[in-house]
């Protein structure tokens, strides 16, 4: 089965690929020569995931999934949340986003946070959603060089290292995205029989 992933983030593609059933041929947007922006204007993670999946499905008429991920920090009232990727501004980097969070969290003792990923699938039966969550804390400084996004400042509960200090196999055993993808993968295996 061919399945198109509506993301231009190569890191996400590399994380997701080993978690899908072997019978799934995962295609990237580069594989279908898509360039340009995908709308992402919903106020919710599920809404953004659906918007992206539906947009690419409409263009290519191929089963398509998309994800949206947000870091929700208790002390910041759930921010950055749905705005995680552009928290420091539209043209800012992941480092800028982390610096903004660390600055806002300076001196804060309550550092609990939740990473959430929602996957939306379009083009197979009804629209489907799969959610993954991991709880943790925000560190006071960046640690590690693996991963991407907020990984250097997010330490999952029960661990003394950040996602960025783990290798991909370690992270894929517990991350929010891995949790969502494994639910999605299980569903796919049941429906590919």
Features:
193 residues, Maf protein, 7-stranded mixed sheet, 5 helices, globular
Explain this structure to me?
- The protein has 193 residues and is of the alpha/beta class.
- The protein has a single domain, classed as Maf protein.
- Helix content is 28%, strand content 23%.
- The chain has five helices and seven strands.
- Strands 1, 2, 3, 4, 5, 6 and 7 form a seven-stranded mixed β-sheet that branches.
- The protein is globular and about 50 Å long.
- The protein starts with a strand and ends with a helix.
Write the layout of secondary structure elements.
Blueprint: E1 2-5, H1 10-16, E2 25-27, H2 45-60, E3 64-73, E4 80-81, H3 94-104, E5 112-122, E6 128-138, E7 154-156, H4 168-171, H5 176-191
Can you summarize this structure?
With 193 residues, the protein is of the alpha/beta class. The protein is built from 5 helices and 7 strands; from the N terminus they run E-H-E-H-E-E-H-E-E-E-H-H. It has one domain: Maf protein (Alpha-Beta Complex), CATH 3.90.950.
Instruction: Provide the CATH topology.
Output: Maf protein
Query: What's the alpha carbon Rg, rounded to whole Å?
Result: 17 Å
The helix-and-strand class reads alpha/beta
Cα shape: globular
CATH class: Alpha Beta
How many strand segments? 7
Helix content range of the residues, please? 25-40%
